[in-house]
Amino acid sequence: MSAEDQVNLQSFGSIFSLDGKVAVVTGGSRGLGLHAASGLLQAGCSKVYITSRKASACDEAVAALNALPNKRPGAQAISVPADNSRMEDLDRLVEEVKKTTDHVDILFANAGATWGEKFDSYPENMFSKVMELNVKSVFYLVQKFTPLMTVNATVNDPSRVLVTASVAGIALGSLGKNAVFAYSASKAAVIHLTKNLAVELGPRHILCNAIAPGFYPTKMANGLIGLQGGFKQLEDHSPNKRLGRPEDIAGAVVFLASRAASHMNGTVLVTDGGAHLKGRL
C-alpha cells in the first residue's frame, strides 16, 4: 500500500466532518431548514446563522438548536431575521453576519414559497411572489454572500452553496384545483440557475449543488399532502413506502457540505425515495 493510500485511509473517519465551519441557513426557523441546521451543528459547524422573516421564529429555532447536547463545544446558532424577498434585507443580512464572522463556508438557500390554485384563476401577484422568492432571491443571496465565501475557499477545501429545489422541478407538480404552476416553474428554474452558478463560481472555489426533496411533513407541505390523499396514500406511492424524515434532509445537506462531496458541482441530489420515477407527484 502506498503512503498516499495510507493517508487517505487515515483521514476517512473525518470525511463527513464540518468541524469549525460557518454556515448560513435561510428559511431556517422550521421544516427542512431547521432539520438541516441541526445536522450542520451536530456535524461540527462552529456557527450556524438562522434567518427567516419572523424574528420570534428565528429566536425559537436558535434556542432549540443551542440546546442540542452533542454539538461542538462552543458552537452556536445565531438568529438573524430577514425577508429574503427584499434586496435591502439581503444586504442587511450580510452586514449582520459580518459582525460576528469574517467568512462563510456554507450557504444553504432554503427559503421558499408556494401557491396552489386552478389554472383559470391563478393570480399574477402570487406567481410573481413565488418566482421572486424561489429564484431571484436565491441569485442575489449567493451574489451578496460570495465575497465572504471566497475568504477561506481553496481548491482542496471549497466553500459550498446548497439550494433547495424540488422534485416538482423535475417531474410534474400538483395540477387540478390546487395546481402549483409557479412553484414547479420556479424549482425547475432554480435547478438550472444552480448549474449556471456552479460554472461561474467553481473557479472561485465555491461549489454549487441543488437538493430536490419530495414530500417531507413540514408546515408548507402538510396542506398539499392532505390534498394529495394524505400520508398513507403518498407513502404507498413511493417505492420505498415512506415520506421524508428529518435525518434524510439533514444527511443530504451535511454530505454536500462535507469533504465527501468536494468533487460534486452543479448536481441535483433527489431525496424522495424514488417517487418522482413513477410520474406526477
From TrEMBL:
<dbReference type="InterPro" id="IPR020904">
    <property type="entry name" value="Sc_DH/Rdtase_CS"/>
</dbReference>
<protein>
    <submittedName>
        <fullName>Uncharacterized protein</fullName>
    </submittedName>
</protein>
<dbReference type="InterPro" id="IPR036291">
    <property type="entry name" value="NAD(P)-bd_dom_sf"/>
</dbReference>
<dbReference type="InterPro" id="IPR052178">
    <property type="entry name" value="Sec_Metab_Biosynth_SDR"/>
</dbReference>
<dbReference type="InterPro" id="IPR002347">
    <property type="entry name" value="SDR_fam"/>
</dbReference>
<dbReference type="GO" id="GO:0044550">
    <property type="term" value="P:secondary metabolite biosynthetic process"/>
</dbReference>
<dbReference type="GO" id="GO:0016491">
    <property type="term" value="F:oxidoreductase activity"/>
</dbReference>
<comment type="similarity">
    <text>Belongs to the short-chain dehydrogenases/reductases (SDR) family.</text>
</comment>
<keyword id="KW-0560">Oxidoreductase</keyword>
<keyword id="KW-0521">NADP</keyword>
<dbReference type="Pfam" id="PF13561">
    <property type="entry name" value="adh_short_C2"/>
</dbReference>
